[in-house]
Amino acid sequence: MAEGVLEIDRISKRYGTVRALHEMTFDVRAGELFGFVGSNGAGKTTTMRIALGVLAADAGEVRWAGKPVDLATRRRIGYMPEERGLYPKMKAREQLVYLAQLHGMSAGDARRATDAWIDRLGLTARRDDEVQKLSLGNQQRVQLIAALVHDPAVLVLDEPFSGLDPVAVDVMSEVLREQADRGVPVLFSSHQLDLVERLCDRVGIVRNGQMVASGGVAELRESGPVRLVVDAPDAAADWTAGLAGVRVVAADGGRTVVELGEGGDDQEVLAAALKTGPVREFTRLRPSLTELFRNVVSEQGAS
């Protein structure tokens, strides 16, 4: 793999009889935003903690720039946990300077970097407040600064948008895009799939500790079930009867949404619609990431 790539290679983890991860495999390339999505308990946080060295894997390896991640490498990773890991009674700026120094920065560099990020994320007026006295959204901003203040080479963020208002979401999104544009691999999990779809270069969908779908957003949407929107105003309610591999998903007057299964042919659908009279619309409906996620999870659950 190219330099700067974070690789998760066949990671497995068990807690007693519970299989948390099974050969979890994917990579996050330099300069890309990778969205890591899945239901609660799917294995996202466990994967991230193993990447950080907080947990040990039973099998598999985490590599960055082609080499196994060690203590020196982990100091170059910016990590934002889902559960806030800040000292609640410590002042925000004081705490961020301290955390930057733990990553090896000098006191002067730590103060300068902290002040720059505090200003960037609009926390200047709250910089000397105790963390516990900040709003949840501002605590989330402080947590993000803690991940960024030491100029990390890799970013791993667990639910970074949780609890943020729309303005803060925009600021967070802009910061993550800037980091990726600098060549930093950015891995983040989120349940806000519309946001993942808008931001990410690639997405991985995980279920029961395994990666079940991965790729670019457009690529994944193309891989979903084929649905067609057909607007045939003179068509009878049963105009699709007899068409192999065609299932009606929704119907509203002459406008019908059909899904093609095995043996389904869009040209046969069009021909059948034209036999009923004029066709005002015949388009392919690409599933959103949310719809694709539901399909992938339900298919896996049924298998």
Helix percent band: 25-40%
Helix count from the secondary structure assignment? 10
The CATH homologous superfamily of the largest domain: P-loop containing nucleotide triphosphate hydrolases
The general outline is elongated
Radius of gyration: 24 Å
CATH class categorisation of the largest domain: Alpha Beta
Describe the structure.
- This protein is 35% helix and 28% strand.
- The protein has ten helices and 14 strands.
- The strands form three sheets. It has a six-stranded mixed β-sheet, sandwiched between helices.
- Helix 3 crosses helix 4.
Short structural description:
With 303 residues, the chain is an alpha/beta fold. Helices cover 35% and strands 28% of the residues.
List keywords for this structure.
Alpha-Beta Plaits; 4-stranded antiparallel beta sheet; 10 helices; 28% strand; Rossmann fold; single chain; alpha/beta; 6-stranded mixed beta sheet; 14 strands; ATP-binding; 2 domains; 303 residues
Topology overview:
Elements: E1 6-15, E2 18-28, E3 33-38, H1 44-52, E4 59-64, E5 67-68, H2 71-74, E6 77-80, H3 92-102, H4 107-120, H5 136-148, E7 154-158, H6 166-181, E8 186-189, H7 193-199, E9 202-207, E10 210-216, H8 217-223, E11 226-231, E12 246-252, E13 255-260, H9 266-275, E14 281-285, H10 289-302
Parallel strand pairs: 3-8, 3-9, 6-7, 7-8
Antiparallel strand pairs: 1-2, 1-4, 4-5, 9-10, 11-13, 11-14, 12-13
